[in-house]
Amino acid sequence: MARNTESKLKNEMFSLIRENQESYLATSLNNQPYVRPLILFYAWGRFWYISLKNEAKTAQIQSNKRIEVCIPLRESGNTGYIRAIGSAKIVNDPNLKYDAIDFCYFFDEYFEGADDPNYILIELFFEQMELMRPGDSYSEKINL
């Protein structure tokens, strides 16, 4: 794929992610995959999740950083998706954790502030992304 086309595809996918934050995170532990819904956000040129520390995904990411994310897309009765493959890391930087709160509309429902001991920030590092636009019968991939 030509660089200009890859750049347009990447920009299209990032724009779609900003509009469609509902996602499914897949992790694995001991050869067993686990999938759960999470709200994905894009800030400072990077991808993030805010989550509870005491959930299973925390130990799964610490044990095996490899992840896959799927973002369902819907348009005019058609469905599609963005899939992203890469790795995840638990972020402990207090300044980033504080700033990330602004991107999480549900933060106050679960946490008492940026220093809440059960609040974790997860950064995602995507290596490859795939887009199947709603209504299309083929997908396009890019390496990041």
What does this structure look like?
The chain is built from four helices and eight strands; from the N terminus they run H-E-E-E-E-H-E-E-H-H-E-E. The chain is α+β, with helices and mostly antiparallel strands. Strands 1, 2, 3, 4, 5, 6, 7 and 8 form an eight-stranded antiparallel beta sheet that branches. Strand 7 (119-132) and strand 8 form a beta hairpin. It is globular and about 45 Å long. The model has no long low-confidence stretch (mean pLDDT 94).
What features would you highlight for this structure?
single chain, 144 residues, alpha+beta, Pnp Oxidase, Chain A, eight-stranded antiparallel beta sheet, 8 strands
Described by the principal axes of the CA atoms, the overall outline is globular
Number of strands: 8
For the report, how would you describe the main beta sheet? 8 strands, antiparallel
- Write the element-wise H/E pattern from the N-terminal end onward: HEEEEHEEHHEE
Structural class: alpha+beta
Q: Unreliable stretches, pLDDT < 50, 5 or more residues?
A: none
The overall pLDDT average reads: 94
Radius of gyration: 16 Å
Count the domains: 1
CATH superfamily: Electron Transport, Fmn-binding Protein, Chain A
Q: Bin the strand percentage.
A: over 45%
Work out the helicity level: 25-40%
CATH architecture group name: Roll
What's the CATH topology label? Pnp Oxidase, Chain A
Helices, by number, come to 4
Return the CATH class: Mainly Beta
Distance between the termini: 13 Å
